[in-house]
Amino acid sequence: MSIELDNLTYTYMPGTPFEAKAVDGVSLKIEDGEFLGVIGHTGSGKTTMIALMAGLLKPTSGRVLIDGKDIAEKGFDRKELRRSVGVVFQYPEHQLFEETVYKDIAFGPIKTGVPEDDIERRVRDAMALMELDYDGVKDLSPFELSGGQKRRVAIAGVLAVRPRVLILDEPVAGLDPKGRAHLMNLITHLNAEGVTIIMITHSMDDLAEYARRVVVLNGAKLVMDDTPQRVFVRENELKQIGLDIPEVADIASRLRKKGRKVDESVIRLDELEKAVLRLVRAKAGNEAFND
């Protein structure tokens, strides 16, 4: 399933003294099965853009195309959109509302028309993905659970719909290292299974590790769109708009400034380890030659 933004603009409070463009003329195409990272400082338009992608907001101008079809056109199947595009907003645990964990996770499948005899299997599968004990927690109130469990229940409710596109807004914010690792492993597993991933994050290290493409928003406009390696090498430009680079890329940059031969494409830990090992071997070889 492809998603295309065609000269997309969204204006808050148009025609008032408080008018402001949150998304300004953004054009972007996301192909089926991509893992796209979205970065930008606070207020750059990231969350508004994904809300437009999911059909939760109507564009002021421009179009959102799903598989080439304008989602704003009369007759577009909105229920199919809800089945196909899942959204996990930042702190999704705040969106829990049902009286039991089971009902909360089942809500999405029920509303999108999943057959009744398939609901329980969907709930079980989603809970297993999120490492939630079905028999142990299904009848509990979600509000009795820990913060980490609440988040897992909320995400399970999105996964139970089995979306073809999963949009995530800061999914690992506030999680402990174990919860963070589990969620990122799950996201990469889903992507490997063919689910398109669109992830907003402030963690440049996660994007360096997992994303295959990164877009940068600044002042409601799209200012960069490339591979993580080609985006993060633009260190000075990123810092000018208030963004960091991955820790590994920063170390590699410091080594280059000291005259060490480290390729600009190094942004992942395994790449840095290999680069440093080459430097050590080269130094050892030179010393042996001099002796």
Structure in words:
With 291 residues, the chain is of the alpha/beta class. It folds into two domains: 3-97 and 163-244, Rossmann fold; 246-291, no CATH class. 43% of the residues lie in helices and 21% in strands. It is built from twelve helices and ten strands. It has helices at 46-53, 78-84, 101-111, 116-129, 134-137, 147-159, 177-192, 204-210, 228-232, 235-240, 247-257, 269-290; strands at residues 3-12, 20-30, 35-39, 61-66, 69-70, 85-88, 165-169, 196-200, 213-218, 221-226. The strands form two sheets. A six-stranded mixed beta sheet has the order 6-7-8-3-9-10, with helices on both faces. A four-stranded antiparallel beta sheet has the order 2-1-4-5, covered by helices on one side. α3 packs across α4 and α4 crosses α6. The longest helix has 22 residues, at 269-290. The chain is globular and about 70 Å long. The termini are far apart. The mean pLDDT is 93.
